[in-house]
Design a protein that fits this description.
Layout (H helix, E strand, L loop, with lengths): L8 H10 L3 H10 L9 H15 L2 E5 L10 H6 L6 H15 L4 E3 L10 H17 L2 E5 L20 H6 L4 E4 L18 H11 L3 H5 L11 H8 L9 H4 L2 H4 L13 H12 L9
Parallel strand pairs: 1-2, 1-3, 3-4
Length: 283
């Protein structure tokens, strides 16, 4: 387990990227029904970006933070806390991601240097995008062995896990013993109708909203509806009630830990400035 800087990503995938040729692009263009001889630069860039995203795949981690603590950026760098439950959980996540064929894996506990305020602010604002761009989000349910445990599963009550459920196009749930929650062959649990039904029941979120491609934001859902989904959830720090919703509403908000309950009115103001309707008050 080691950290990888952004500048090092190309080196990791350079062999796969080098295999992308004009023929590769032309084949993808043909599958779209476009004429390779008259394709526009913008279309070519779109196809190329699509191919690169399929090569540079990474897995994201979603979990409920342990009250006893989680390994942070410095702990992983120095090798401290290797015998803690949090470090073992992180190790299991990395092993699972590797077994599924991913070279890169990201966890919020250690991949953000929270002592760096600029980095923390960037991460909070980009979190929804990072989860939506991931090829797979691995979700660990620390208190569950089956669907019947969902009513008592803390993961469904936390503020940050709302966007971690909705933003990724693909998710895979694992039980408290790190066994797949579902047994079907597909890697995407959002394609399992029985699991979708169970998720909808415990979260109050329509199945269509959970399974939708939300990578470019939550579409065709009103402010009050999204707020109603979030209203049942809690965060450890009071500011995170607002900060965890930044990506879901696509707004910008200055991150100021220590402001307490002032964060939520600022979120509401930002939503009002960006939405044509003020149904934020209807929830």
């Amino acid at each position: 387990m080691k950290f990888v800087e952004r500048k090092d990503v190309f080196d990791i995938f350079q062999d796969e990227i080098a295999q992308v040729t004009d023929e590769t692009i032309a084949a993808r263009v043909g599958n779209r029904g476009w004429n390779p001889e008259t394709i526009y630069v913008a279309q070519r860039k779109h196809i190329l970006r699509e191919i690169i995203l399929e090569i540079v795949k990474y897995a994201m981690f979603s979990h409920r933070w342990d009250a006893a603590g989680e390994p942070n950026n410095r702990d992983v760098t120095t090798g401290k806390q290797r015998n803690t439950a949090g470090f073992k959980k992180l190790t299991n996540f990395c092993k699972t991601a590797k077994s599924l064929g991913y070279k890169l894996a990201w966890s919020d506990t250690c991949c953000i240097d929270k002592s760096n305020t600029a980095e923390l602010s960037e991460a909070i604002h980009a979190m929804f995008k990072w989860y939506s761009h991931s090829y797979l989000c691995i979700i660990h349910l620390a208190e569950s062995s089956s669907y019947s445990d969902f009513d008592h599963e803390p993961w469904f009550t936390r503020g940050w896990t709302l966007q971690e459920l909705l933003a990724p196009r693909r998710v895979k749930f694992y039980t408290k013993k790190w066994e797949p929650l579902t047994t079907h062959a597909t890697i995407n649990d959002k394609e399992d109708k029985y699991l979708l039904s169970a998720l909808s029941t415990v979260t109050g979120i329509p199945e269509t909203a959970i399974a939708a491609d939300n990578s470019k934001g939550i579409k065709r859902r009103s402010v009050w509806e999204i707020m109603s989904w979030a209203s049942k959830r809690k965060t450890t720090r009071v500011e995170d009630i607002a900060y965890s919703l930044i990506g879901l509403f696509g707004v910008n908000l200055t991150i100021t830990y220590g402001e307490g309950e002032k964060a939520f009115p600022r979120l509401v103001e930002a939503i009002m400035m960006s939405k044509p309707k003020w149904d934020v008050f209807a929830w």
